[in-house]
Give the backbone structure.
Amino acid sequence: MTGTGTAQPPYKQLRRPTTDRMIAGVASGVGRYLNVDPTLIRVIFAVTGLLTGGIALLAYPVMWFLMPVEPSVAPAWPHPTTAGAPTAAPTWSGPQPPAPPVS
């Protein structure tokens, strides 16, 4: 059976971005994956590190090692989340063609 041609959104990928990073991009990647602000993820990392005496901070270098880097050709964040969501078409801000003559 073949598909009906319905566009499927790309599946979510846990990757470290190349642009929105402070140290290695782990918190930013997790934030993008969970669709929350990366600052919230950084605060959660810090609080859990304090509450566990630093044990939870060992997860950061492990995630740094395991999470692949986002390719440079990846679409900008945030990615569309719903199937068939309208995307903004690029607008042309250059010179406009002359209006057709009115007869």
In short: The radius of gyration is 21 Å. The mean pLDDT is 75.
